Amino acid sequence: MGAQTIPAVPICDVSLPHNSMISDDEDYRFQLSVAVYGYEQHQHGGGKQYLWGDRVVSHRTGVRLRLVNVGAHSQARTGGRLGYPICLVCGQSRSPLASQADLQAFETDHRQRCGRVVEPVGFYADITADAVSLENAVDRQEAYSVMEALRMGASEVLDMEIEDLQLLAVPQAGVRQVNLLLYDPMPGGSGILDQMIARWPEVVVAAQRIVEECPSQCQSACVDCLLHFRNSYYHRRLNRLTALDRFDSWHGTLMFTHDIPSRLP
């Protein structure tokens, strides 16, 4: 086990467009694949807990989450340098994938001009969102495969966009088990998760069809079933056969167990 620490800057309700000497009409031409981690802040508005096969599924409102952007995905995955080279005095920055010579010149220039050492920093945002959680999944492959398939199934059944719901893995220290949250980023909630719980059997059937009827009959995941641009961060965690096995085992019925009391500061 290992850990890294970086300073982080809070952000809220901002848009950070990329400006360079070259402009292009393609929206995603220069988009950087980033690593975003998160955790719960132990506050929510309560909800309901269910059994789905032998797994626990909870539906809670007003879950407080902190999302942290720690830099380029390629560097985070390999244990490289985290964060973004940004001068916190004047706001200028460099790409975290820039050459070592460029980064060194940037740091030297701003140390002399702004009087402060340039450190790699991350960005974090605190959000409040409704969430459906798959709790204690055996590993990230099970968690991501099942919940991504459910998200895609919900997009068919509920006539929503895939980006209307987002995934967040919340690992547990020292074990492979992980909780995976499917959360609604719309402030105040859009009601999609309420519809998803109410129509759970239909969503499961749609998700099962997606992973079972892959046109390419791939051995893990491909662009014909689970892979798309927006989930590229966890492509290596997706496996349609894992999701199909869980759907066959857990079926499509949620069994209500108890109410979850709210947790306040």
Structure write-up:
The protein is globular, with a radius of gyration of 21 Å. Helix 3 (140-157) packs across helix 5, helix 3 (140-157) packs across helix 6 and helix 5 packs antiparallel against helix 6. Strands 1, 2, 3, 4, 5, 6, 7, 8 and 9 form a nine-stranded mixed β-sheet that branches. The chain is an alpha+beta fold. It contains six helices and nine strands. The chain has helices at 73-77, 100-113, 140-157, 192-198, 200-212, 240-250, and strands at 8-10, 34-40, 47-52, 55-72, 84-85, 120-137, 166-171, 178-184, 255-260. The model has no long low-confidence stretch (mean pLDDT 88). Helix content is 26%, strand content 28%. The chain has two domains: 33-75 and 123-259; 84-121, no CATH class.
Spans of at least 5 consecutive residues with low confidence: none
Distance between the termini: 31 Å
Measured by DSSP, the beta-strand proportion falls in 25-35%
Q: Determine Rg (CA atoms, Å).
A: 21 Å
Indicate the mean pLDDT. Answer: 88
Q: Sheet with the most strands? A: 9 strands, mixed
What count of structural domains?
2
Structural class: alpha+beta
Pattern of helices and strands: EEEEHEHEHEEHHHE
Number of strands: 9
Number of helices in the DSSP assignment: 6
